[in-house]
Write a structure and sequence with these properties.
145 residues, alpha+beta, Alpha-Beta Plaits, four-stranded antiparallel beta sheet, 6 strands
Length: 145
């Protein structure tokens, strides 16, 4: 798989995150029509933020897995807060029955799990050593010339 770095005005980046969040009390509410709606709305919400892209999404009955690409100009916590907040409001509008189970318009549990996805540590270490070796070779060539 080739790496596709993206550009902003002053940076080149590849920032991918694996995110997991759950409904309050781990209730199994993300089934059938609700599941389909959550997937559809997640894509729509991410399209509202420039550069934020869903690479993978998997909605289980009691949790949501996302692999997101988020540019460095955004804070991960703000994007997740935006997604969870807007999804909750839209779900309550579309499925009024959820209001009986979740009062106060809080459908998601407070926290979430996030981990970075990208180059592994061993690969980065090899690259750094390779760069150092390459630089030393270039210096030696300059001394010889």
């Amino acid at each position: 798989m080739t790496r596709q770095f993206k550009k902003l005005s002053h940076s080149v980046y590849e920032c991918k995150y694996h995110v997991v969040f759950c409904p309050k009390y781990r209730y199994k509410i993300l089934e059938e029509e609700v599941r389909t709606y959550v997937i559809q709305q997640a894509y729509r919400l991410c399209n509202q933020k420039e550069g934020v892209e869903i690479l993978e999404i998997n909605v289980q009955p009691d949790h949501v897995h996302l692999v997101l690409e988020i540019p460095p100009k955004y804070e991960v916590s703000k994007i997740i807060g935006f997604l969870k907040g807007k999804l909750a409001l839209r779900m309550f509008d579309r499925f009024p029955k959820l209001r009986k189970r979740y009062w106060g318009q809080h459908v998601w549990s407070r926290g979430y799990c996030v981990s970075t996805v990208g180059l592994d540590e061993e690969r980065i270490r090899k690259y750094v050593k390779w760069q150092q070796k390459k630089e030393q070779e270039a210096i030696q060539r300059r001394l010889i010339d």
